[in-house]
UniProtKB/TrEMBL annotation:
Residues of the Beta-galactosidase trimerisation domain: 394-609
Family membership: Belongs to the glycosyl hydrolase 42 family.
E.C. no: 3.2.1.23
Entry keywords, A to Z: Glycosidase, Hydrolase
Domain Beta-galactosidase C-terminal stretches: 619-677
Protein species of origin: Occultella glacieicola
The protein's name: Beta-galactosidase
InterPro entries for this protein: Beta_galactosidase_C, Beta_galactosidase_Trimer, Class_I_gatase-like, GH, Glyco_hydro_42, Glyco_hydro_42_N, Glyco_hydro_b
Family annotation (SUPFAM superfamilies): (Trans)glycosidases, Class I glutamine amidotransferase-like
Keyword check for Protein transport: no
Record carries keyword Hydrolase: yes
Pfam families referenced in this protein's UniProt entry, alphabetically: Glyco_hydro_42, Glyco_hydro_42C, Glyco_hydro_42M
Domain Glycoside hydrolase family 42 N-terminal: 10-382
């Protein structure tokens, strides 16, 4: 098949008799399916005992795919334990947060620190790689599946202590990092350290801990422990295949694993797109950008999405007509070089028997799901290789940091209703609605190419980040941060000085007091253009949850509180150090969406970065560029038709229509244009 966006998904023919396979492949051809992921949960039938392997079924599956000329993503089959392994080695089962040793069942059910699991999973990955390396059409190895969860067993405790030794070197450094003189916690032997759980440091669940340093390090350790499982299997693959990309499927904005710590070990980033509801367009855009940012802007894959409905929630609505197409093109617009499904044919039993699929239980090709999937397949075929490898020409960066996420949410005070994703997504939505091409990047990223850098709720300051943000301002760029930023160091200890610690001189402001209020309390913030362009108050927007009272030390006051004893005091500031063009914004409260949008757009406008259609909040525009050729994706998420003036000239790849800049575009609900500019 010709090069194009990889299209297909997770296929489990082992669940069906072989006479069904021929009909499946006929249907796949009708839908322009060119890529199949196989073997994800095949451990139990590939290995029936510690030294007993049987590849008969997988051989037949792979041979049929090769004969059909399709591409293969081959899994290492270690996404769930087989029953015999859990029975023979009970220590591979996890111990949960409450200290209960689990018995066999479900998936995500292994202890990542189990030597038995480490040995046998790597051995299976090696066997599969040895057998199938060099198979025609093999385009990627898929290790494990949706890594996640945590274990608190004795093996994990021992591994945690080794991890701490490597991190701190000696107990004096560890005790200092954890502020262990508090509550008589000074450790005198490594074996005294226990994993933080409901039996030790936690009293009301995972986020309520007596020692944030211990809990933060266990979160880091758990992420690294599962990463070791991945790298063990990857190393086993590389013994037999030195070049085919190796990956695993991430889960977007997933709290338990720091994907930035994993990124360098993956050859390409992939993720499974299951939004929480049908109005999550901005959230999906953010997550696509987050995944693309894992590999310095390189394209990613959507490894899974549902063609119709999920089966994991209390209520599972079906995707409305046009939504599958729209969301798939949104992924491509944000950098996807593969659009894959879970699943190709519905399972006949167990918990995913009602999960949507390209083919239902009967294998019909006249369903709406199949027809929409086939239509999309035809459009991707028309696009061909035009956007493969293309990147997003971003001049705006949004920083995302798992350490800040963890540290902010395990903190006692000031307000547990504050959640890191809500704050970050609020600022991202303001950028998304302004149709700004942006990168979501780690705090370690090179910021030299960005004119505007947003770092909301950057609770933890690590390394040389302060200096790199200051460099953005010094060269005329803009930096924006928010309340509760710059509060703790890499060990989650408070800075000994004015808040925001490490940021005070950068933002020209200090925090005098931090007030917290329940969700239903709002404090109005009056925002005024700092350059006086509006001649007065521009907007009044509510502040919620946390209200920091700010003391400018060189910064201009942009917003003031309207209620409580600090009415009239600064809430939002902008600092232009030395009168230069660069600017540093500080937002001292969780502004409502209209307030965030005003602040963000005011900052963007100073660099001429407002995108097209900023007054059509559901009209999304995103650009991918390769070798000077730009494709502009126009995505209409609205429920009613809309008319707008074309923001660029070019040819719509999907219809062949020639478009002139300024001409009227009539977009139907869920409509998509892919304009090759020029």
């Amino acid at each position: 098949m010709a090069e194009q966006i990889a299209y297909g998904g997770d296929y489990n023919p082992e669940q069906w008799p072989q006479e069904v396979w021929a009909a499946d492949h006929e249907a796949f051809s009708l839908a322009r399916i060119d890529t199949l992921t196989v073997g994800v949960f095949a451990w139990a039938h590939l290995q029936t005992g510690e030294d007993a392997y049987d590849f008969t079924t997988l051989d037949a599956i792979v041979a049929r795919i090769v004969a059909e000329g399709r591409k293969i993503v081959l899994a290492t089959a270690t996404g769930a334990l087989p029953p015999w392994l859990a029975k023979a080695h009970p220590e591979v089962n996890r111990t949960d947060f409450e200290g209960r040793r689990h018995r066999y069942g479900q998936r995500h059910n292994h202890c990542p620190s189990s030597p038995v699991f480490q040995r046998l999973s790597a051995a299976l990955a090696g066997r599969i790689a040895q057998r199938y390396a060099g198979t025609p059409g093999l385009i990627a190895w898929h290790v494990g599946n949706e890594y996640g969860g945590a274990c608190y067993c004795d093996n994990c405790a021992a591994a945690f202590r080794l991890w701490l030794r490597a991190r701190y070197g000696n107990l004096d450094r560890l005790n200092h990092a954890w502020n262990a003189t508090f509550w008589s916690h000074t450790f005198t032997d490594w074996d005294e350290i226990e994993p933080p759980s409901a039996l030790t440091e936690h009293w009301r669940g995972p986020n309520h801990t007596a020692f944030q340093g211990i809990t933060l390090d266990y979160l880091r350790f758990t992420s690294d422990a599962m990463l070791r499982n991945f790298t063990d299997e990857k190393a086993a693959i590389r013994e037999h295949d030195p070049s085919t990309p190796v990956t695993t499927n991430f889960m977007g904005m997933y709290r338990p694993i720091d994907y930035h710590r994993w990124a360098e070990h993956l050859d390409l980033a992939t993720w499974d797109n299951y939004p929480p509801n049908e109005h999550a367009q901005a959230r999906m855009a953010f997550t696509h950008d987050l995944m693309r940012g894992l590999k310095d802007g390189a394209p990613f894959w959507v490894m899974e999405q549902t063609p119709t409905t999920t089966a994991s929630r209390d209520v599972n609505p079906v995707k409305r007509p046009g939504v599958l197409r729209l969301w798939s093109w949104q992924a491509v617009a944000h950098g996807a070089d593969a659009v894959l499904y879970f699943q190709m044919r519905q399972s006949r039993g167990a918990c995913e028997k009602y999960h949507g699929a390209v083919l239902d239980h009967t294998g019909r090709t006249d369903t709406r799901a199949f027809t929409e999937a086939a239509t999309l397949g035809g459009e991707l075929e028309r696009l061909g290789d035009a956007t493969l490898g293309a990147r997003t020409p971003a001049r705006v960066a949004l920083l995302f940091d798992w350490d800040s996420w963890w540290a902010a949410e395990i903190s006692d005070g000031p307000n547990r209703h504050v959640t890191y994703p809500d704050v970050v997504l609020g600022y991202h939505r303001a950028l998304w609605e302004a149709n700004v091409d942006l990168d979501v990047v780690p705090v370690t990223a090179d910021l030299a190419g960005y004119d505007v850098v947003l770092a909301p709720l950057l609770h933890m300051v690590k390394g040389d980040l302060t200096q790199r943000l200051a460099a953005v301002v010094a060269r005329g760029g803009t930096v924006l941060t928010s309340f509760l930023s710059g509060r703790v160091d890499v060990d989650d200890n408070a800075f000994l000085g004015d808040d925001p610690g490490g940021f005070t001189s950068l933002f020209g402001v200090r925090v005098a007091e931090t007030d917290a209020q329940p969700r239903d309390v709002a404090n109005p913030v009056t925002l005024t253009d700092p350059d006086g362009a509006d001649g007065g108050a521009a907007l009044t927007a509510d502040g919620h949850l946390v209200m920091e009272v700010l003391v400018p030390e060189g910064a201009d006051v942009v917003g003031t509180y309207g209620a409580d004893f600090y009415a009239g005091e600064p809430a939002v500031t902008r600092y232009r150090p030395g009168g230069r063009a660069g600017a540093a914004w500080y937002v001292g409260t969780q502004l409502a969406a209209d307030g965030v949008a005003w602040v963000v757009r005011t900052a963007l406008a100073g660099h001429g970065l407002l995108g097209p259609y900023p007054d059509e909040p559901e009209l999304e525009v995103s650009v991918r560029e390769r070798e000077g050729v730009r494709h502009s994706f126009v995505l209409w998420h609205g429920e009613e038709p809309v008319e707008v003036a074309a923001h660029t000239s070019g040819t719509d790849v999907l219809t062949g229509r020639v478009i002139a800049a300024g001409e009227t575009l009539r977009l139907a609900p869920k409509d998509v244009l892919v304009i090759r500019e020029g």
